[in-house]
Write a structure and sequence with these properties.
This protein has about 525 residues and is an alpha/beta fold. The protein has 17 helices and 20 strands. Helix 4 links the parallel strand 7 and strand 8. The two termini are about 25 Å apart. The structure holds acetamide (ACM). The site of acetamide (ACM) has 4 residues, from loops.
Length: about 525
């Protein structure tokens, strides 16, 4: 006799669950009746076979799983919500959009995993608290490749995360083929050695490191993500963190001696010469290909950590400052950023940048008077990572949409002493002390896998897993439904067995109840 768990174990936890009498028994004679898109039915069949080795059929069976996209439910369920009614002879999953049905399927997978084949009857109503639930992977510092990315996308989908922020370019590598500028990958995708051992370490691994995605790879990954209702947000860094691009095309840079593809990890002096129209042309050309490859509404331009030294040494920049009446380098960056924002906006897309693009002084290494008096274009989205949370309030007051990626709370490159699992779990995308009226502008949160010190896939996985599950729940689950004890139990009973089965490494000390 199979007994129901008192409370289903689900990550992220749904908005409401009501238990009912009885069970739905999943067998090889269970049918799928599909009134949603083909993709949802195909993936449900694929997932159930892969997860629990039962082969469902897309025809009426002894008992049935109904997938229904019903636009009339938009008001109650929004774009991503679903409701699921599990009774003894049917499971009905309904969403106003296909994404909602897809998330209902993820819930069903977790229920099937914990109950074997007899799933307790219940009714679930569920929708996310935040529309932006992102995971960022930095592949500029260490290239991981498409198998790893697809596996991460699959785990994101299981956790109902919906944005993959792909950090594709930086000082240490350019990872995406751009047909008009072949040297970006011929030259910019490779470095001849790599700093190891930490930020101030003099040690180097002297092997060549590199790799990049062809445009065909990109299209394949974008499609794979889209089937899982994940939008890929590409990040093309500018004007700083651009040594790899400048190594490939030295005319883009500000220094007379162009940098090589960086081999060490502190931010370098690779900064675009934004006073040169060739740089603007380059950006336009690159974006034309980016817009074509990525259907995403959002395009990330980085914008962080622009070290002014290379602009100080450049006479074009001083002339530009006089001409445009700019007082400092923050204002130079602001003018440039707003130009890029408008270029992106004119194509019907939306620019995102790290909160450095607000022109405030957030760096200990910058001059205190290096603040911009010019405002950022209001349609730009600000991804907060550094500085006082008052900066979030300020961005919201100015009407910007904000993604909270506070480094103290969400940086996956930080170790588990700095960000233990509980701290990751307790993180709320909406910061304390900010007026709730700004909730619609606070889109959600991101968690960031910076990859300077994780050359190996297992190292990366241990940084990501299990904390990604905590961020997934912080992004989806309403605050008063969060519960760390329940989360820990669900982690050890649902996710860890899954990760084991998938050969995904996770950080064991952070999960005392595991095994
Ligand atoms: C950042 O961590 N430099 C955004």
């Amino acid at each position: 006799m199979v007994t129901a768990t008192a409370q289903p174990l689900l990550i992220p936890y749904p908005r409401s669950i009501e238990m009912r009498e009885g069970y739905f028994v999943l067998t090889a004679k269970t049918g799928i009746i599909n009134l949603s898109d083909k993709n949802n039915a195909r993936l449900l069949k694929h997932y159930i076979e892969e997860d629990i080795n039962i082969n469902l059929h897309e025809q009426r069976g002894d008992n049935n799983i109904f997938l229904i996209t019903n636009r009339k439910l938009k008001e109650s369920l929004g774009a991503e919500g679903y409701r699921m009614n599990i009774s003894t002879d049917s499971i009905v999953i309904e969403g106003a959009e296909n994404a909602g049905v897809f998330y209902g399927i993820q819930t069903l997978r977790q229920l099937a995993a914990q109950n074997r084949l007899a799933i307790p009857c219940m009714e679930i109503f569920d929708k996310p608290e935040y529309e932006w639930r992102d995971f960022m992977l930095d592949e500029a510092r260490h290239f991981k490749g498409k198998v790893v990315v697809k596996q991460l996308l699959e785990e994101m989908a299981y956790l109902k995360m919906n944005k993959f922020h792909w950090h594709l370019t930086d000082d240490q590598g350019w990872r995406i083929e751009i047909e008009k500028y072949p040297r970006l990958t011929q030259v910019g995708a490779y470095r001849d050695s790599t700093q190891i051992g930490g930020w101030n370490s003099p040690l180097y691994d002297v092997n060549i490191h590199g790799g990049y995605y062809t445009q065909e790879d990109i299209r394949e990954i974008v499609d794979f993500a889209a089937e899982r209702h994940i939008e890929i947000v590409p990040e093309i860094e500018m004007p700083g963190h651009t040594s790899a691009a400048i190594a490939a095309y030295p005319e883009l840079g500000s220094l007379k001696t162009p940098p090589t593809v960086a081999t060490y990890f502190n931010p370098t002096w690779g900064v675009f010469n934004v006073a040169d129209e060739r740089v603007i042309q380059f950006i336009q050309d690159v974006f034309d290909e980016i817009f074509d490859l990525f259907p995403s509404r959002y395009i990330h331009i980085g914008g962080d950590e622009v070290h002014p030294e290379s602009w100080e040494a450049n006479s074009d920049i001083s002339r530009f400052m006089k001409e445009k009446n700019l007082d400092n380098y923050s204002e130079v960056q602001m003018l440039f950023t707003n130009r890029v924002a408008s270029l992106i906006h004119s194509k019907g897309r939306t620019m995102i940048g790290w909160n450095d693009i607000m022109g405030k002084n957030i760096h200990e290494w910058a001059d205190s008077d290096n603040e911009s008096t010019h405002a950022l274009a209001p349609y730009a989205v600000v991804q907060f990572w550094k500085g006082d949370t008052a900066l979030i309030a300020e961005a919201l007051k100015q009407g910007h949409r904000v993604i909270n990626s506070s480094h103290r709370d969400t940086y996956l490159d930080y170790n588990y002493t700095k960000i233990p699992l509980k701290k990751a779990y307790d993180f709320s995308p909406f910061p304390k002390g900010i007026d709730r009226k700004y909730k619609p502008l606070l889109l959600g949160s991101g968690c960031q896998m910076w990859s300077e010190w994780i050359p190996r896939i297992e190292d990366m996985q241990r940084q990501v897993f299990p904390r990604i599950a905590a961020y997934a729940e912080s992004g989806w689950t309403i605050e008063n439904k969060k519960n760390f004890t329940r989360f820990s139990t669900s982690l050890s009973q649902i996710l860890i067995p899954r990760w084991k089965q998938k050969n995904i490494a996770w950080h064991k000390e952070s999960t005392p109840q595991a095994e």
